[in-house]
Amino acid sequence: MNRPSNVSAFARRWIPGVAHALASVATPKQSKRRRPRGLVLLETLIAAGVTLVMLSVAVPMVIRSARIWKQTQHQQFAADELSGQMDRLIAMPTEQRSQAMENLTLSPEIQNVLHDATIEAVLIDDQDGKRIELSIDWIRVGAPPPVTLVAWINPFPEATEPAAKPADTNPDTPEPAAGDPEDEQ
Question: So where are the chain's domains?
Answer without folding.
Answer: 63-154
